[in-house]
Amino acid sequence: MKIITTADGSHTLFSEQFNEIYHSRHGAIEESLHVFIKSGLDYVSKEQKEEVRIFEVGLGTGLNAMLTMLEAEKHDLKIDYTAIELYPVCIDTIKSLNYTPQLGYEYCYGPYHTLHLVRWNETHQVTPHFAFKKIQDSLFTYSLTLSNYHLIYFDAFAYTHQPEIWSAEVFKKMYDALVPNGILVTYSSKVVIQKAVKEAGFTIEKIPGPPGRREMVRAHKPT
Ligand SMILES: C[S@@+](CC[C@H](N)C(=O)[O-])C[C@H]1O[C@@H](n2cnc3c(N)ncnc32)[C@H](O)[C@@H]1O
Q1: Distance between Cα 154 and ligand 1 center (Å)
Q2: Which of 59, 68, 97 to mutate for ligand 1's pocket (most ligand atoms within 8 Å of CB)?
Q3: What is the per-residue pLDDT across 74-92, written as a single tens digit (0 to 9) for each?
Q4: Which of 92, 109, 169, 182 lies deepest, with the highest CB count within 10 Å?
C-alpha cells in the first residue's frame, strides 16, 4: 500500500489491487468533510436529534469514521456507526497516516487507532458519543438490517475501477437498509450511477461537489 500526499496536505493510499487511490487527489480530508460530514451528517442531524445510525461502504483508512467521531463529540451527537470492509488496511500503514496532526487533533491519535484495533463484528463504545462496529465482509453478500440506518456513506472505489459495486442491485440493498426519509451520499454524480440510484427507488439531489468535482449525489429514500 503506497501513501500519497493530496492537495490539502493529507494522506491517502494507493491500492494496487484496484489500481486506484482511496480519496481525491484534490484533498482527502477536504473531500471527506465535504461529501460525508457537511453533505451527509450535518444535513441528517438537523432533523434526527436522537441517535444517528450510519452505515459506511468501505472503512478503508477510517478517515470518514474518525471525522464522524469528532463531530459526535463536538456536538454531543449520539452516533451508532457501522462500516463494512473486505480488505482491511494493516495497522502499520494506518499509523503512518497524517490525519490527526493535519486536523490539529493529535490527541485523537489513540481513538483513531482504536477504530482499527478493535475486534471485528462487535460494537465498541470508542468515545462517549460514538459507538462503532466494523464488519469484515463483502458488500455483495453481507445482509444489512432492514430499515435501520438514517445515513449511508457510499465510499466505494470509483466506477471505472469497480463498476459492479455501483449497480442498481447494490443500491437497492442500500435503499432497503435505510429508514424512510433516509439519505445516501456519495462523491460521484456519473450519469450511469445516477441511473442505478434512481432504479433502486431513490430520488436524487445533485449538490455541489468537493474540490475537483462539480457535483455529487445526495439520494433520498421517500417516506
Ligand atoms: C474509496 S475506498 C474507501 C475509503 C474510506 N472510506 C476511507 O475513509 O479511507 C473503498 C473501500 O472499499 C473497500 N471494498 C472494495 N470492495 C469491497 C466489497 N466488495 N465489500 C466491502 N468493501 C469493499 C476497499 O477495500 C476500500 O477500503
Answers
A1: 9
A2: 59
A3: 999 999 999 999 999 999 9
A4: 182
